[in-house]
Amino acid sequence: MMLRREAVQAVVLGSILGARAGSADADTTVNVSTAAQLQNAVAAVNSTSGNETIILADGTYTLTGTLYVNVPSITITSRSGVRENVLIEGDAMSATAKVQNLIRVAARNFTISNLTLQKSGLHLLQIAGESKADHALVHNVVFKDAYQQMLKVSVDRKNLAVSGDDGIVEDSLFVYTAGIGPEYYIGGIDIHAGKNWIVRRNTFRSIISPERTVAEFAIHVWNTSANALIEKNRIINCDRGIGFGLDTRGNTGGIIRNNMIYHDADQGQFADVSIDLETSPGTQVYNNTILTRHSYPRSIEYRWTATAGVLVVNNLANKPVAARDGAVGTVESNVENALASWFVNPSQGDLHLSSAIPAAVDAGRAVRGLTDDFDGTSRPQGSGIDIGAHEWRPGVQAQSSD
Question: Shortest CA distance to 55 belongs to which of 3, 95, 14?
């Protein structure tokens, strides 16, 4: 598994450097090995037209202030490609931390890959949608121990028409290492007003509120956002899983598919719904697998009269799907009584089918755009689409992940 991951990382880094080096505006590459060098490199690039790659040697980079990226086409990545070996950190996970945001990006085409961000007073990474920071790429990054949301796509509430769009977050880990967050106002990815974001193949762990009320979602897309694709993510012991919209600050369209969501019984006191649509018309929720052992009674909810035309099909869960407050949609072919014994290793968030469960295998309906499963296995493998995130293949062991 490690050799395959490192090969992928090398390809990504090579493509970043090679594509730019082969262009008419070949980028400048800067190698750094200390926090001071990193801070100086980022400060210096802001006086240029951009198009620069900053490559970090293995080590720990403890910042004395936020890294502000204000010019386009900047890449921050590691030389080794091993994300655990390069740590960019603030001084504390605390409201009184000197370093509030680790990195704030206010320009398009920003890339960060193959490293770890940890300890901040606010966010580990902020994409400033109010500055039209489009086309951000986050690949193979560990996000650890932020005092608020780990990755924030922000917006000016007085000008929601200007937003950070077309970003990708993939193959990354979002985690609170203590098994619980520092306060309730925490979350994984928080996207305000963003259009066409893709969030795929990430793992989210222990986004749990210790006080007052429920934490924010592992993945939240809202406040006039539209057309996000959220797929193939694994969410383990987080107060809430995936949310589109909130109250009247809604979302339009988008797809939530092929995700695995697990929550154990003894993880936090505010556990809530796994997938939630609020003022989110035209959204599709299909082929997700959800197993929760806490007391909240529903797995998927869609709410408010503005939430119309939604499609909720082929989801495999142990609790019901529910419409609330006048929402309407097509709800078909969902399983709401799944058992833990149906899955390979629930406590680790591994919700691959452990056998050919009759309630799931070949029991789903075709959905336009559904071509594969959580692992990238093509659908169908039998006479029909399987319900849930995993398409069963006899004799083939399920792939593992973080």
Answer: 14
Banded pLDDT at 12 (limits 50, 70, 90): very low
Domain boundaries, the chain: 2-353
Tokens 């966010």: give the residue: 123
Secondary structure of 184-210 as H, E, C letters = CCCCCEEEECCECCEEECCEEECCCCC
The pLDDT confidence band at residue 27, using thresholds 50, 70 and 90, is confident
Per CATH, which fold does 2-353 belong to? Pectate Lyase C-like (2.160.20)
The model's confidence at residue 26, banded by pLDDT at 50, 70 and 90, is: low
> Do 254 and 285 meet the contact criterion of CB atoms below 8 Å apart?
no
% pLDDT > 90, the chain: 91
Q: What are the angstrom distances between the C-alpha of 29 and each of 42, 54, 210, 367?
A: 12, 6, 43, 45
**Which residues in 51-65 are b (16+ Cβ under 10 Å) and which e?**
bbbbbbeeeebebee
The answer to whether the predicted template modeling score (pTM) of the entire model surpasses 0.85 is yes
